[in-house]
Every structure is written in C-alpha cells, then in structure tokens.
Amino acid sequence: MTPAWQVGVICRVGGTLRPWDREKLMGTVLKTRTTVISGIILSWGMILRWTGYAIAQEPTGPFPLPALASEPDSILIAAPQNLNPGLYQPPPTPEVAPVREPENEIPPPNSEVSDEPSAPAILWEDLELDISDSFSNFGQANRLVTPTLRGQLPNGNTVSVAPGFNRFAQRDLETIYHVPLTVGWQGQLEDVSLKVGGGLDFFDRLPVAAHFDAKASIPIGPGATLSMTVEQGPYLFNAETLENQISAWRYGPDLYWQIDPNTSFFSLIRLGHYSDNNWEQQSFSRLERRLGDEATLSLNVFNWSFQQDLEQSSGYFSPPDFLVATAELTWQKEIVEDLSCGLSGSLGQQRLEGDWTLAYNYQALCTFDITPSLQADLGYRFSNVSTGQSGLAGESAYNNRQILGGVRSQF
After folding, report:
1. What are the C-alpha distances in Å from 217 to residues 151, 192, 196, 263?
2. Taking a C-beta distance cutoff of 8 angstroms, is the pair 309, 323 a contact?
3. What is the pLDDT, as a whole number, of residue 14?
4. Whole-model pTM?
5. Quick one: which of 116, 195, 239, 248 has the fewest CB in 10 Å?
6. Whole-angstrom distance, CA of residue 179 vs CA of residue 405
7. CB-side exposure of 14: number of CA atoms within 13 Å?
C-alpha cells in the first residue's frame, strides 16, 4: 500500500479563482496566477489532492482527472471556442440510424394488370355429329350416333372428345345399347404425323370394355405417304357379336400416292386377331381419276379372308375367301346456293368361296349450308354386297340399306 496523490491544473476565463472553486476540487491550491490576454482575464492555478492509498503497480500512464464540475458555467477545458465566442460550434448531432421497414418475406403482388386475356388451354374449334342407321331385311339394325368435339392446343396439336350412343338390334336377340367415350390426340413430330385415341365402352347389360387406336404417317417420296395403324377393342359388328363379347386386334400399313393432280392411289393391308382365336386378313386398293371438276372414276378391289368360319358360333361374317371388284363413278355439284349434292354408283363382281355374282351399290348425299359456320348432311345408301347371314346376294333378296346424317359446326 502506498499513498496516492493527484496533481491538477484549474483554469477560469473572465475572472479570478473563487473560494468555491477550491471547495469543489477538495484539494489544496499550490499556486495561482491571473493574466490579461487581449482584454480577457485568465486565472489558473495548480492543485494537490489526497486520494488515499493504492496498491503499488507498474505505471501505465497518467492518471485521468475526475469530472470537476457539472454546471454549464464551469468551463475547465481551454478550447478555441471558449476563448473566442465567435468560434463556438455546436456539438455535432448524433447520427440516428434510419429505421428500416421490415422486409416482406413474400414480395407484394404485381400491381400491373395485363389487358391481354390469357390463352385458353384448349381452343375448341368445331363440333361434328355423325348419324348412321343401317338395316337389312334379315332383321339386323345398327344405329350409331357419334358427336365429336375438336380443339387446338397452344402448341398447334389437336385434341378430340367423342362420346356416343349406339343401338344394336337383331332378330331373336335382346337389343344392346352401347355408350362409348373416346379421347384423341393428333400432332406432328418432325416429319411424322401421329394420331392416338382411346376410351371406354359402356353397355346396358354387358361388362365395360376398353378400346385403343394409333396411327403414324410419314412421307416417303413426292406425293406418297406411308402409314401404320393399330386398333383394339370390341368388334362392333352386330348384337350377336357383342353378346359373345368378341374383341379384336387389327394392325397394318396404309399407302397413299398422289400420282398427279388428277390421279391418286390408295391401298391398305390389315391383319386381325380375334378373342375367339380367329385370324383375318384384309386388303383394299383404289385407283381414282378425276374427270373435270365434278366427276371421278375409280377402280376398287377388296379381299377378305379368315382362318376359320365362325359365323354360327361367334356371330360375325368370317368367310375363308371373299373378293369384291367394282368400278365406281361419282358426281358432285352445287345445285343451288347453299346446297350441294353428290351421287355415286358402283358395279362389279363379288366372289364367295369360289362362286361369282353381281355386286353393286349406289349412294346420294346432300350438304346444306345453314349458316357460314353450320352445315348439315343427309344421305341414303344401298348395297347388295354380302355381309353374311344369306350368302351371296345375286339370287337372294339380301340387301343392306343405310341412312346417313350429320351436322358440323365451327366455333
């Protein structure tokens, strides 16, 4: 423990040191002096003050003086502004950090509202309704009603939705009602055109079934296109075939060739496998020549053969050997404004299991333009080409009649 003393300097501007200045310091003034500088009285003095005992330690620097006074008139620091009031500068205002608004974790929604309407996912373009009512004098009647709604996707591809309501009636059998639902897509992949579709088949008294089809087409030369088709689903031939729940896979190529602006050729081959383990092969070829702006002349050859004839057990026409060759003439013209009609007729030969007979058919179809975006079709078709049940139609009363109708609307 060692005694501790503090030595300091006291200064007063504008007068001499006063007794209470010494009392505030609680010490002994060793020496005072008064000086006049440029008319200003300056008094100063030295003071000694006892501070008690302290623990001896290495000096770390001069001891700081405690605050001597807190009154505003006790100025103890010799600064220029204290000597010359004209040099006084107010103390700087402490900087206050700006208050930051809390950042929103979620950015505010864009206040700009676009005037352009958003593009729909599907732009529906047209609606088509096809009606076909076919019947024969042997008690078979099939009525097909198929509406098809088509639309375009933003990338240019096409989608379609096709529900339906069909009726299959046949002598000595209970009528079957059929409601199919098909969804399709059609698009382009470089040079390949693709078309796929599928859906479900609902029946009033039969189990639900499924169907599927796909087609790919590619150009193979100037004016020539080669396609491949695959189909699977219930065989919608007649009520007996549906009653027996016959379904089939069919697949094969198509070829279309535009030989010149007025001549075209089309041919297809189909191979089929049925759920009753029967196999089929079909081929069809058509050479068509346009005669002016209103008429065409065509040559048609159709061949159809099955591995087994299962008509009695499965209900569908399944000849081991069937061939039809005909020549067909068509004519189409606008009769009056908003009404155009077409007529067609074919004549040739048909062969069933080696027997030949006459084959012919004729058809009339008219189209009415109800509005610029609405059209309606109405037509009639007759054919004596055999479809089973009665054999060849040459010497029989067999015939197949069909009433055709349709409505097309563009949005």
Report:
1. 21, 6, 12, 21
2. no
3. 53
4. 0.69
5. 116
6. 19
7. 9
